[in-house]
Design a protein that fits this description.
Low-confidence stretches: none
Number of domains: 1
Radius of gyration: 19 Å
Mean pLDDT: 96
Shape: globular
Number of strands: 28
Amino acid sequence: MTPAEIAAAMTGRLHPVGEDRSEAMLPSPMIQNHAAFLHLLPDGALVCAWFGGTLEGKSDISIHASVLVPGADSWGPALRLSDDPAHSEQNPVIFAAPDGGQWLFHTSQPSGNQDECRIRMAPLTRDPQDPLQLSAGTGRYLDELPRGCFVRGRVTLRPDGAWLLPIFRCVSRPGQKWNGSHDTASVAVSTDGGASWRLDDVPDSIGSVHMSPVEGREGIIPAFYRRRQADAVHVSLSRDGGTSWSAPQPTDLPNNNSSIAAIRMADGRIAVICNLSSAASSTDRRASLYDELGEDDARPDADPTGGCVPVWGVPRAPVAVCLSEDGGHTFPLRLVIEDGPGTCTSNDSTDGRNKELSYPWLLEAPDGSLHIAYTYHRRAIKYVRLSPGWAQSARSMT
């Protein structure tokens, strides 16, 4: 599809694709839309949040969301949930607190300087007279956390009630531009309902980002990671309820230095949604994530000494849901949701060069249906619903 064709399809209307699948392009007035997150509200309504604007890193990037109410044949209008004219606001995460409150977390950074990022936490409310309307309160920045903290994974609860917010730290190098070379994983912990936070590091995690923990079994909680090195999805384990974590180790899933998400399904299996590609599968490369910003910055890229060499530009396709029955070490069953060139050597969403299918999210509903959202060519957020029993379509790719 061309950018114009994608824009014309961004109506939010659901349409069937075969007997067991329905799809929609979410509505948005923005020309770039990326980093979808799905969240189920208590009444069964589905929220999809993402960031949109003209170009990732630009100060017109802000958080948007849309609501799909139960039984509806179309998503509601795009709603702006943040609006800081001086910062690029990215990577929304929604959390339902134990007291019933809904919270929005997202990042806020100047230009492409992820090492200067702050996290904003704001209450999310729904209009009781109009179920399609959401709004975010003023909230606050989590300034007790160091600059450079980024979010992407969902918030979980520790057995003692503490809130666990997965963090990846975009670590700065004095006098040098951030490029991902020293990024590490951490968990922000709040023991007072989000009023204050501290940071616990994941050991030996250089390059492991976008931590995605899943519900534990038999006292073990796995968490899965995107990798700056574009080699493989990694996994680490907590054996103490999320208080501490082992060093990330590779799974058999490839990774292309693009986002992943993981859930524990009702049947006990772990599902990871990701791109089945890595640096070993393509020679496509780009210099950095923010090539197109064109801002005057004479600083050199960060020296990778003591860190890693990030790999950018590996194609972001296909999108696949991958199933594990051994706690997340191997994923023999894989269901391709959509394939394509995946070209991402440019972030531009207007000239048709970008073909990525990326940053997928997944959520299993109580009825066993699977809800998926992902970036479509940087122009739109695409939504896919698979009917209960969808996992029977997964096939072995080993």
